[in-house]
Amino acid sequence: MIRLRNVSLARGGRTILAGLDLTLESGEMAVLLGPNGAGKSTLLAALSGELAPGGGEVLFEGRPVGDWPARALAQRRAVLPQASRLQFGFTVAEVVELGRSPHAGTAEARHDKRAVAAALQAAGVSRFLRQDYRRLSGGEQQRVQLARTLAQIWRAEPLGPSRWLLLDEPVTSLDLAFQEQALEAAKAEARRGAGVIASLHDPNLAARHADRVLLIAGGKLVADGPPAEVLRPEVLSPIYGLRLAAVKHPTRDLQMVVPV
Amino acid sequence: MSEPRAVTPPPTFVSRLAQEPLILLGLALSLLVVTLLSLAVGAVPIRVEAILRILWELLGGSGADTREATVLLGVRLPRVLLAIVVGAGLGTAGAALQGLFRNPLADPGLIGVSGGAAVAAAATIVHGAALTAQLPAWLDPWLLPVNAFLGALAVTAIVYAVAWRQEGMDVATLLLSGIALNAITMAGLGLLVFLSNDIQLRSLNLWLLGSLAYAPWPQLVPVIPLVVLAMLGLMSQARPLNALLLGESEAFHIGFPIERVKRRLIVLAALAAGASVALTGIIAFVGLMVPHLVRRLLGPDHRWLLPGSALLGATLLLLADLLARTIVLPAELPVGVITSMVGGPFFLWLLFRGRRL
Questions:
Q1: Of the segments B90-94, B164-168, B332-336, B352-356, which one has the largest average pLDDT value?
Q2: Residues of chain B in Cβ contact (below 8 Å) with chain A
Q3: What's the gap in Å between the CA of A21 and the closest CA on chain B?
Q4: Cβ-contact A9, A54 below 8 angstroms
Q5: Tell me: the pLDDT tens digits for B167-190?
Q6: Closest-CA residue of chain B to A119
Q7: Which of A18, A62, A118, B354 keeps 20 to 30 A from A134, CA to CA?
Q8: Residues B314-321: what's their mean pLDDT?
């Protein structure tokens, strides 16, 4: 469980998070929605322990996230950044293997190869295995980074300490098919007991993949609930300053929103 | 997509080519060959059998008193050892700094580490006499390398203080402040040259260009353990360095306490580069070129890159020094002139290629 209690955070003199309260459960796929600059990335950075909140506290499994040793934390939660560029020519396999770093020297390390192979497959990058990461397209690089995070929290036994996957805009550079595949892979981890928090821009992707939607704006949580509850024109329109209408998904029992 | 993609068997794992140990062995053998060559060639040629015999007798404790033995043990061996230690130290420091800054153009000279070491060492050469009078005699040889290390560390600490931000160390600021500090240290060196007397000026001149000519045993003895210690320390940081190549946040996300790792790397790189610079002056471009060449052979993984850079750095500096002391016999060139003549164009070529190595 990750709990945020009255978390506020300022960067460069600007308040990004303003008194946020939130409890995240493992086994759940939570999608973070909100306009540009709403504080999605900052919230994920606070959850991951990368940024210390200026006020309030972030409790990771009951303990302030800043008190966790980096390695112990990394054995339990993986983070996908928006974009990662490399200056040096690691192969795709080497990048994904780096995700297993926190398990070096532990019992979990004997599963490294299986974890990497499973992650490469889930992210659809197995065939790039020996290619130079820098030669891949932006979308391919994003999938390799996703594979790295999947490998990091992969476990042979789904039981044991909780696992968390924090994904900052995991599908921005991906084509339609890979958007689906990436979110399916994340959701599959949630079904195996991991807690997943992914920030997205497309409410209709959230409608299909989220168990829970967190809508933030101006550094505050403005709506929190199942997709059908949050992803309604009357909730979203004022947040984005855009007139929206609801439509039925042609084949599935889903409500979607489109600009008017 | 609800329908799973075609299931392929899990890929089998071949980490790169699995030939890294062989390549490393090859590098070690070439260092051995070049070392023997450097010991053999000079104004007094010494055959390899004679070298081995003299060294063997030295180990046995019975020093032969021939002319060859005097030249080998008194002149050539310390110089060769200095070249090996300095080349290995600069190569390792360069590789570590390039990883730390995620910038293939980083170099101990570039961020001001060498400059700081140079000023402190030059100050010791010019004003050291006043200091040594206060110290027990056995500390004398340690003064130069330790001061050079402190100079390197001081400059690095200033760069670090300038470039440190709440979010972590900003690499662009770090490199820019390195440029400013280099300007300041060069001015300091100019001032010391101005203040020096004729005898000091001669040794400073050789030293300013980077030379391996000054390698007396008592001065050499403290430098070796300092550089070796720093190199082993850097090699122990190979995994965090690999993680850093992904980015500082990413390195933290995969479990490395990143601020501590960076501080450790800075101190160790300052020690490796600073102690290397102490006896030889600034030998430019070794720390830049060597890691690039090794990456072509072994890839960017620091577990191979760091030892590879130590071996190739030692080999190349030995070769450069061999050239420097034989090309204009009976005089000799400062080795820094040779490394700069090769390294400068190499650097330009890297820029020209758009840093894609």
A1: B90-94
A2: 1-2, 5, 7-8, 10-11, 13, 15-16, 99, 102-104, 167, 239, 242-243, 245-247, 249-250, 252-258, 295, 299-301, 355
A3: 23
A4: yes
A5: 455 667 767 887 898 899 989 988
A6: B10
A7: A118
A8: 96
